[in-house]
Specification:
L-2-Hydroxyisocaproate Dehydrogenase, Chain A, domain 2; 2 domains; 6-stranded parallel β-sheet; 3-stranded antiparallel β-sheet; binds nicotinamide-adenine-dinucleotide; binds (2S)-2-hydroxybutanedioic acid; Lactate/malate_DH_N
Length: about 300
């Protein structure tokens, strides 16, 4: 019996629950929110799609009662405020750090063996905060994963598919670094169209445009929607949760604690990791070029500066 708790039943949390249920990735999904009755309402609405969609996952709701989340295999944290047009993710730290600290402490207390997936923004700093809480509780660093790279890489593939006029399903590509408008690093050099470098099919200017559009992917949607996105974030969360529960050993760039890897220590930032049972199993060293290394260092410096706001 696989149990997943999603904290925050807002746009992203409820979409993640929806995708997880429709794909029957877990037997049980518990949605928890602080707003009275809200998670229960979302769970009931989603359960009424069960006979229409043909899934047998059970979704229940909880108003801040963590006992209902006990013994979860995976905890997904989406609670917190989203940005509005014109804002950066970093501006959310004041409110979201307090929320993430509370929910992570409460959730891990009743599910100490869970893998915890952090989504709330600014995600890299929220993951670092969670790592610190988990460490104090004696929880292995491999059980703490920040979700950002899965989403950013799907946006990269979307933009490459669009620019090349081909199916994004045939495109492979990763985004590493921080999950910020200026800290993301789409690895254009390593992106392929079914194994063939994309640079064979797209000129340098167009590739640079793809890179820039990918980096501001979240901001573009926030400008259009008035709040940040949820469909691709929800599906990206499911990709990570599925890889953990099915022990898929997929390479998914994710925000994890580095202890010397990629030349960085005491920071959580996006790098390619193998995801499976128990969380992230291994960091993959892709051997960055000098230019990519410099971009990674700048990205880490920006994330580190953001982390200072925690103390
Ligand atoms: N990492 C990523 O790739 C990514 C992608 C999309 C969104 N996000 C972030 O996810 C977060 C949620 O976005 P959203 O669009 O779902 O926002 P939302 O406002 O729709 O939902 C957030 C929910 O959190 C709940 N909440 C607040 N405090 C809580 C607490 N203490 N305990 C339990 N629930 C609490 C709210 O009641 C609300 O229902 C934002 O911070 C957003 O920036 C991250
Ligand atoms: O852009 C945001 O603020 C939300 C999220 O991080 C995203 O990339 O969609």
């Amino acid at each position: 019996m696989m149990k997943v708790t999603v904290i925050g039943a807002g746009a992203v949390g409820s979409t993640a629950a929806d995708v997880i249920a429709r794909r029957e990735v877990a037997d049980e999904v518990v949605l928890l929110d602080i707003k009275e009755g809200y998670a229960e309402g979302k769970a009931m609405d989603l359960m009424q799609t069960s006979s229409l969609e043909g899934f047998d996952t059970t979704i229940t709701g909880s108003t801040n009662d963590y006992e209902k989340t006990a013994k979860s295999d995976v905890i997904v944290v989406t609670s917190g405020i989203p940005r509005k047009p014109g804002m950066t993710r970093e501006e959310l730290i004041g409110i979201n750090a307090g929320i993430v600290r509370t929910v992570v402490t409460n959730a891990l207390a009743v599910s100490p063996k869970a893998v915890i997936v952090i989504v709330s923004n600014p995600m890299d700093t929220m993951t670092y905060l969670t790592y610190q809480i988990a460490k104090e509780m004696g929880i292995n660093k491999k059980r703490v994963i920040g979700m950002g790279g899965a989403l950013d890489s799907s946006r990269f593939r979307y933009r490459l598919g669009e620019a090349m006029g081909v199916s994004q399903n045939d495109i492979s590509g990763m985004v590493i670094g921080g999950h910020g408008d200026t800290t993301m690093i789409p690895l254009t050099r390593l992106a392929t169209w079914n194994g063939i470098p994309v640079s064979r099919f797209i000129n340098a200017d167009s590739l640079e445009e793809v890179k820039q559009k990918t980096m501001v992917g979240g901001a573009t949607l926030t400008g259009l929607l008035g709040t940040s996105a949820w469909y691709a974030p929800g599906a990206a969360i499911c990709q990570v949760v599925e890889a953990i529960l099915r022990d898929e050993k997929k390479i998914i760039p994710s925000c994890v604690y580095l202890n010397g890897e990629y030349g960085q220590k005491d920071i959580c930032i996006g790098v390619p990791v193998v995801i499976g049972k128990g969380g992230w199993q291994k960091i993959i060293n892709v051997r960055l070029s000098n230019e990519e290394k410099a971009a990674f260092e700048a990205s880490a410096a920006a994330v580190r500066k953001m982390n200072e706001a925690l103390s």
